[in-house]
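Please supply some protein, with fold tokens.
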Amino acid sequence: MVKLSVNVDHVATLRQARGTIYPDPVEAARLAEDAGASGITVHLRVDRRHIQDDDVARLRGSVRGKLNLEMSTAEEMLAVALAWRPDQVTLVAERHEELTTEGGLDLLHNGLRVMVVAQHLAAARAAVSVFLDPDPRQIEALARLASPREIAGFEINTDAYTRAADEGERARELAKIAAAAELGAAHGFRIYAGHGLTTANVGPVAAIPGMAELNIGHALISRSLLVGIAAAVREMLDAMGSFHS
């Protein structure tokens, strides 16, 4: 069964819009785990636009499953991760002007910096993941740079698949994701995926052989405004297991 890690960033986005103490992403995380999520993901951005340092600290003390911290390779972020010791750190590309993460890391050009950060994290016993586009060149670069002891796995960026204009394009993008998963697994890496996934499109991705976990946030949190977090999580878990080729 593919696991679901719920990203609660946008609970914090709503809180930060008014500068209040509610809604609390820590409470949202508890409800998500109660409903069947296997873990919680948060992205602590350099600009602190949603999740705050205190959120990470409180989540570290309350998440019962896996706490996955997404972050850039900035020294400031490395210091936070080493201080709070999340179960997993996922290294992502980050630009101040983007609305959300726009693409995967470029290991062909920035691989050495990624490795420096990954080695520090691995030495602190954090499982390290990297966010990559479904591009075989990036996966081969990862295999040249790191062993699964240093970087345990990678998260496949599913954005292009979720934005596909028609069934033909969607099938081609899904094939890229499946090929990336197969190549990564052949090199010994754990396979994750996420970005833009909804109950309408998640099934085929969850059904890809070797897929270990999906990280889903915006669609799930948006749905929870209408039906509650527990129901939204259960709907997503049902959709993840509903696809039959």
